[in-house]
From TrEMBL:
The chain crosses the membrane at residues 31-52, 64-85. This is PH (Pleckstrin Homology) domain-containing protein. It comes from Mucilaginibacter gracilis. The keyword Membrane applies. Keywords: Membrane, Transmembrane, Transmembrane helix.
Length: 180
């Protein structure tokens, strides 16, 4: 059984009567480094080094024993923990496109399924890498802020098909379905 057959079986409950998938995919597997990691990882190394240095200092204050582990945990998460969290989230993510909808299933501790009517998505953006992997962002926010790419504090992230292979082909499929 190939990956798409398994994905279709997993996704079958999300289909309406007489609906079928035109495309099914998953995000890139494994740990993925981004440009931001060039900043986050070195800063977290320096952060953790300074916390460990404070913990090993001879003239320790008693408060150091309570505060330092909290800051050490934050530094470890910023440096490497978020990479493993992202990997786990992508491992449990599945994307599907039908003639009328884009379906996204994701979650680590629960299965969250979102369905977006292709014709009601006002803006679709593509970010393509040199190796044909990339991300398609569905700007479903119809407020003035959302249409102009401004996200208010506390607003949820825009839905996207993240790190998919042959992103340009999938993007063209969505545009073709949207224009029909």
């Amino acid at each position: 059984m190939d990956a798409n057959t398994g994905a279709q079986k997993q996704f079958k409950t999300e289909l309406a009567y007489n609906e079928s998938f035109l495309w099914i995919g998953r995000p890139k597997r494994g740990i993925v480094f981004t440009i931001g990691d060039m900043i986050f990882i070195p800063i977290s190394i320096i952060w953790c080094y300074n916390i460990l240095k404070a913990l090993l200092d001879i003239n320790k204050s008693p408060i150091t024993f309570f505060i330092a582990p909290i800051f050490l945990t934050i530094g470890l998460y910023i440096g490497i923990g978020r990479l493993f969290w992202d990997r786990a989230l992508r491992r449990n993510t599945l994307y599907g496109i039908t003639a009328t909808r884009i379906i996204i299933e994701e979650g680590i501790f629960s299965e969250d399924v979102s369905s977006y009517d292709i014709n009601s998505i006002p803006k679709i953006e593509i970010s393509e890498r040199y190796d044909s992997w990339g991300t398609i962002t569905l700007n479903t926010d119809t407020t003035w802020f959302g249409r102009n790419g401004i996200r208010l504090r506390g607003a949820s992230k825009l839905p996207s098909l993240t790190l998919i292979e042959n992103v340009r082909e999938v993007y063209n499929l969505i545009l073709k379905l949207k224009n029909n």
